[in-house]
Amino acid sequence: MTTRGIVTAIFEAGDRVFIQDPDGGPWSGLFLFRPTPRPAVGDEVEVTGRVREFKGVTEIEEGEITILSHDNPLPAPLTIDTGDAAQEQWESVLLRVQNVTVTNPDLGHGEWQVDDGSGGLIVDDLGSYNYRPVAGDALDFVVGPLYYSFDNFKLEPRDDTDIGTEVAPVPQVTICQIQGTDFSSDFEGQVVVTQGVVSADLEQSDREGFFIQDAACDSAPATSNGLFVFDRGRDLVSAGDKVVVRGLVKEFFGLTEIALDDLQVVSSGNELPAPIELDPPADESAAQRYFEALEGMLVRATSAKVVGPTSRFGEFAVVTADAIDGRHVFEDGPVGEIFLVDDAGVGPFDLAVGDSVGGLEGPLDFSFGNYKLQLVRGPTIVKMAATGKQGDLDEDGDIDLDDRTMLVSRLGERAGSDDPADLNGDLQITDADLAAWDDLFRDLTPAPDEYTVATFNAENFFDDTVDPGKTQTRQANSLVSAEELALKLDKLAEAIHDDLREPTILGLQEVEKVELLEALADRPEIETQYEALLIPGPDNRGINVGFMYDRQRVTILDSQQLQGCTRLSPDTGGPGVPCDTDGDGTNDGDLLFSRPPLLVRLVVSEAGGGGAGDVVWVIVAHFKSKRGGAEKTQPRRVEQAQFLAGVVNDLLAETPNARVIVLGDLNDFFNSPPIETLTSEAPLENLWFQAPPEQRYSFIFEGRAEVLDHVLTTPAMTGAFRRIEPIRINADYPDSWSQVPDTGRRSSDHDPVLVRFKIGQ
Fold first, then answer.
1. pTM for the full model?
2. Domain encompassing residue 331
3. Sheet holding 329-330: strands in order across?
4. CATH code, domain with 50
5. What pLDDT is attached to residue 476?
């Protein structure tokens, strides 16, 4: 339909517009949602669009506006009693209530209530005003259009002139004054006017706004002269526009911003501020202050190294090129120098750890607890030199005798660059390469009296059905499809066969049910005859620990699920499962583990059945994650570690020379209290210390290379230990690999860890 009226109010940068017939009266107002183009108050407009009832309010949705004239007088507000205002006939009409008292200053969500003695009326905060209601305040009047939302009519003052009380005028301040010298603004919660040049326009991205900067606002290094303006994605500005903005200052999850109410473009084509070259300090706390002083400003990294691969959100982590010597920033390293690069302006870019990037430029943003450079132009990218898998001549992912046959057939040839047959790098394929291949094969292949044990977090290994009482979700709103399950099985099978080389014993985490492990064992890629164990636990999502073993070499003697009781708050994702902490018969706690450990006692024998074999106890564990904060969740991980240390001690008390392996995703670092609890309260050795320092990581979180997946053993295993090998197929690589079939690369977000032992030692 098509109608016309005078624009009486504009809220949220033009998302919400009210028009009214000039003569006023009942039924004379109408609400417009996101009309285009954006009008001004006082414009007479003709609007064409679809009329709908949206949650009780009559509106034209995304209508097309024709502006007929400007600066028209507004319809006079209709004076009405508060008790009579909340009626359908006054919806979207400009109303005035007078001689009212604030009877409730805080109804929640910015709403408050006034009453002139005839009944209460809700007042809302769509508008931009600095008045803060106090119970008992006497107001001469309140004016605004009447809106309907969340089952209530409510008056919407446009600014402080619509509220009849003494309010200080809206302050005109600089960006530097708004930002201040601390992490939050002194102007938070106030409506202000400020100005600057648009340094980056991200209105059409998921940021739904733009950055402004005033290079001359002050010379203090601790105050940023950049600021984010949130305009709900309206196409209002371009980079280089000089603008005056009015709106409410907010701290939006740590980002100082203005929620735009009004905007004036003063000029266009202005020169952008010069970007600041980033050089953050190594100390994390100092780095936070360093970045805060640049929040909202244009910044640049001329040359940088990728230390965290591109995530599914399009972000990657970098340090400046000279920050580190190697490829990784470890948990005890210069973590302050890491910053994220995001793709709201341009991208995403598919990057792996070790890649180099240049010309990173954009405003310094803050979201989800991290400072991040929002790219405004594509960087230069130098990929880390591709390295074929040495010795894998047929490129099937594993190294076997077929590869040796191919190498023999190529003796005497010249080798190409990155040729998997050129093991010594001399660009010739010779007997030296054949000897090197034989050494590699022997190194990779366990002897008949050796066996391998691996831990592998399979990352959300769900099937495509929902089980009763479980959410079975990755993100609480996204179920696994049949196609995703098929791809997951393919990639996990490739990882187990090609990369882990089919370990004798495999402990897994984040597995929904035993049927998935059985389906994995049945994959055509898998040659070992695996059996599977899994006992479901109380986790609300349905993730559990699981166990797979080579039935030709391993005999299960017994298995059981382990569980403790704690007085900490429930951790199952549901209401908790009561238990008795002290054995007095009263349920005074909740289960300690949402993913209970699995204890398996087994005999592992030599390949081919020779020898008596070793009795080994394997504990597969998955400790509480750090979701919710490392410090907040640490007490539970400490209790879980104390519990497992007690289990190990009990086993050793019964069998002093028991061979015990504790493995799994323990969700904490070497020197953390939970891991130190395990090694101090039980005689357990962390086998990671047998790996070279540069290899000690299994997970990369926002650029930090961390050990989360551990393998620990009792003293009886010391002589049997041969080697530990983190399998580098996941943590260093971008999330895009998770969608590529026929490879184990990015089959999970954790690298599996493989350990070799010798029987009879």
1. 0.85
2. 276-382
3. 329-330, 704-706, 699-701
4. 2.40.50
5. 44
